Amino acid sequence: MSNDLKPTVRPEDTLEQLDIRLGRILSAEAEPSAPKPSYRLQIDFGKYGVRTSVGRFTSHPPGELVGRQVMGVLNFEPRQIGDVSSEVLMIGIQAKGKDSGEATFLTPALEGKLGSKLF
User: Fold this and answer.
1) How many domains is the chain partitioned into structurally?
2) CA triple 15-60-65, angle to 5 deg
3) Total-model pTM
């Protein structure tokens, strides 16, 4: 077993403070002002609105991202990435065989209601 796990925490001190919800990618386009190759994504979170995210999901062509359901953290402070204010952190993992930070998205196995909370 690996020893690089972080210390044990209580859900009410961590996960329950994050507002992680289900959205659908409406558009994906290259963001030339980002310091590393990235996409500017428009993601619909249902009653929580459409939000912008800039992320390194470039292992996927833009057309593969559009229409996909993804999870995003809605209550982080916006982060300036190049010329864009990234309003939501889309959740992903490092893509196999890619550089650190180059990600693939996490998506539910079945369609869910937009805006549904992760639990």
Assistant:
1) 1
2) 65
3) 0.91
Alpha-carbon span 88 to 118, nearest angstrom: 15
Q: Per the domain annotation, does 90 fall within a domain?
A: yes
pLDDT digits (tens, 9 = 90+) for 26-61: 999 999 999 999 999 999 999 999 999 999 999 999
* DSSP-derived pairing of the beta strands 20-30 and 39-44: antiparallel
Render pLDDT for 68-77 as a digit per residue (tens, 0 to 9).
999 999 999 9
Distance CA 6, CA 19 (A): 21
Which structural domain, as residue segments, surrounds residue 40? 17-105
- Closest to 105 in 3D by CA, of 76, 67, 48, 77: 67
CATH of the domain at 29: 2.40.50.140
- CB-based contact 84:31 (threshold 8 Å): yes
Kindly give, in sequence order, each residue whose CB lies less than 8 Å from that of residue 36, ignoring residues fewer than 6 positions away.
56, 101
